[in-house]
Amino acid sequence: MWLFGxxxxxxxxxxxxxxAVYCDVSGSDPSQWxxxxxxxxxxxxxxxxxxxxxxxxxxxxxxxxxxxxxxPDLFSTLYRRGQPVPERPQRAPVQVEPDxxxxxxxxxxxxxDxxxxxxxxxxxxxxxxTFNFRMSALTGPSLYDVRFKGERIAYELGLAEISVFYSGxxxxxxxxxxxxxxxxxGSHSKSMVPGADCPEFSTLVNQTFWSQHTDVPGTFxxxxxxxxxxxxxxxxxxxxxxxxxxxxYGGMLDSVLILRSALTIGNYDYxxxxxxxxxxxxxxxxxxxxxxxxxxxxxxxxxxxxxxxxTITGNIHxxxxxxxVDLDIxxxxxxxxxxxxxxxxxxxxxxxxxxxNQMKFRRTLVKTERxxxxxxxxxxxxxxxxxxxxGKTKFGLEVGWEGGVILGKTKFGEIKAYxxxxxxxxxxxxxxxxxxxxxxxxxRHQMVVTRHKDDEIWSSSNYxxxxxxxxxxxxTKFYQDDESIVDQDLxxxxxxxxxxxxxxxxxxxxxxxxxxxxxxxxxxxxFDECPSVSSRDSLHIIHRDRSDTTxxxxxxxxxxxxxxxxxxxxxxxxxxxxxxxLVLESRRQNFIY
Length: 593
What we know:
Layout: E1 2-6, E2 16-24, E3 34-40, E4 43-45, H1 48-56, E5 103-112, E6 115-126, E7 129-136, E8 140-148, E9 151-166, H2 171-174, E10 177-179, E11 203-209, E12 218-240, E13 248-265, E14 268-276, E15 282-290, E16 294-296, E17 305-309, E18 312-315, E19 317-327, E20 335-348, E21 351-365, E22 382-387, E23 391-392, E24 398-399, E25 401-402, E26 405-406, E27 417-422, E28 447-451, H3 477-480, E29 490-500, E30 516-524, E31 539-543, E32 553-556, H4 572-578
Antiparallel strand pairs: 1-2, 2-3, 3-4, 5-6, 6-7, 7-8, 8-9, 9-10, 9-19, 11-12, 12-13, 13-14, 13-31, 14-15, 15-30, 16-18, 17-18, 19-29, 20-21, 20-22, 22-27, 23-24, 25-26, 27-30, 28-29, 31-32
């Protein structure tokens, strides 16, 4: 691996120098590691002595840089700079919980050897939703037993892996390929800051990790934040303003529950949200921010990035994330179908001599794991739906009818399903099985569907950054056996990604806006109507007397108060006075590694 020199200032990834050593770090004995090559001022040297001799005799190129001084004006710091906006201090708008929290969190502490520590049973309830959650040290945040109105939607839903692959002309950026579980993803989730990372009224949830280096577990106090949030846009609405169309208004804002964590992996931060809507929709979102990784500016780097400061190039790179989605729609025995949207040329009814072009859809039952490998094709639009053909008793017998309705079907005999909608997909351009591409075989496809197996827990491993030629976990084997996936316990593996060519507005930090990768689990014929019709959040406005509209209108708030309110919020400064480790380390927490 290449090890580059950098200046230890805020922030180091924006202050590289043009010097690096190429090291053989094979094996677990550091005394056997050795330097094989040296990079300096745009050249590779076979030995350290070769570089030193050339430097002393002035027979090689040299480069001079000025060591940066850390100050509020340094471009890489996060101090406020420039003309302040607004001109005078005015706080940003905030949300409040006027009647208290509408969700609950059951948090059960467990005692071991007479000592209390935070191994917990965490169950959340909110507006018909229930789920448990945890932070895996290896793979990050995961949800379990996700239910809506008592019916399980997912057995497991969570992050599986994150990777970043760089390109460049200099050695560091040329072969810098990160597979982030190698640093234990979940152990880097800490320091959720109220008022910046999440609303001030959020519930902060800690996470306990235990390593081989310590006798007792250690705890991060803010690995998660849990909060209800008004998105500020309508979940649904209709204005029937005119008398001919009904004279009514109905609508509701989209208030959701969000479970958020942020994984700080070196220079990059990945914010991961699980969002629960009142219409039965689950939204999973990954946002990237933090500092870009740069290389020392040189002419060979021009095809790979823009010059962003005097000495740095922002190299092109590809972010990719993998998620595991174990769905149980109507039970663990599921089917995966595509609704293929096709062109349809038909005779025009009023004039059969004229061909009319429209669309239709065709249901396709996907039967095997290889058939289910999905690569996005713009010319072949389709829906992805998951449903159960029939329920089963505890004895394994299929039950076809119940109350005159076929189980797994609507009362009209249509599929009772959930739909998977993928946003934020990107294509991995690396040739398969060449170079380091084998470290991330899960990134080859936008979705893969496999039968659940107890030994196929994760799609990657914390050795993946170094084992590409002989991987500990080879994800392609999950589906190479091409097993049947009809009426089976199915796992959906989702890949999201984006290419990033850094620009000056990525300094000092990359903003999250435009860098949202999402996928949705949406009810599809699952309910008789939109479940949000039961929400008290909705407003319904009608005339008091439709025959005499001059008498005014009535606003139905479904029992909710219309009173204005101000509620107290936690004070961040007071929290940090009590426990600075909530945000910044004040005592060495070496239990992580």
